[in-house]
Structure prediction request, 178 residues.
Amino acid sequence: KFVDKRQWVSACEALSNTAISARKEGRSVLSDRLIHASLQFATAIASLENLNGFDARAVAKAYITANMPKKALEVIGKVAEGQISHWVLYRKAEAELAVEDFDTALASALNAFDLANKDSKAKSHISSYHKLLSEIYERLGKNRDALLEAENAVEKCLDGQFKEELTERVSTLKGMLA
Prediction:
């Protein structure tokens, strides 16, 4: 009620991002509260008649963060074909991975990666796409491909803290292959 409707998407995404950070820091109670707040915005946005790709991406992220991947896929399903960007496909692949539709997740992630490579605004985030591909390959039992994508993620990562997380992933995958 107190947040202007034009700010709902920003609020939804900010709350989701903060919830993810809180979860990484082991602050589960705070994370749960933030997720609950983000879902209030997500539900309101999802109920709107016209849902563009930008809005759907933020709503899908909130649902994925809340471990509600089927809801994320429903929201993404409302987006018109011409509004599907690599950002939306990335969230779609995450949701498909969460519902264990691995082959479809891989197809969505590869499509997202290809589109992201053509978008100069996405270059600084391309390591996230490699990480997602790595996770999907791992779930498919293709650990060598998972390792290759994890190594690509490290190589292209610009964020120090994220790079540490990716480096740990590479070590874990190398251990699995040893």
Q: What stands out?
A: The two ends are 55 Å apart (CA to CA). The chain has nine helices and no strands. The longest helix spans residues 28-46.
